[in-house]
Specification:
The protein has 3 helices and no strands. With 82 residues, the protein is mainly alpha-helical.
Length: 82
């Protein structure tokens, strides 16, 4: 059972890094149709899109990635007990 929990923990960390990378890349004027941005979009959209329906942007600032990373941190901490 510990192996499954560790695997889920690693997956949650991966999602957190992907969300962070997507947020950082959004600050730069790069082609969003490139391989890396498209991969990050396909990985993170299932998490960010439902949150965007609930959490409105604060002016031009999208707080959804930060809130998603916080939620992943809480879920990961609850799973691993720390």
């Amino acid at each position: 059972m510990d192996g499954i929990i560790q695997l889920v923990g690693v997956f949650i960390q991966f999602l957190g890094f992907a969300i962070f990378a997507r947020a950082i890349l959004s600050w730069f004027p790069i082609d969003q149709n490139g391989t890396i941005p498209q991969a990050l979009n396909s990985i993170t959209s299932p998490i960010l899109d439902p949150l965007r329906k609930v959490i409105p942007p604060l002016g031009t600032i999208d707080l959804t990635p930060m809130i998603a990373m916080f939620l992943l941190l809480v879920i990961g901490g609850a799973l691993t007990g720390g």
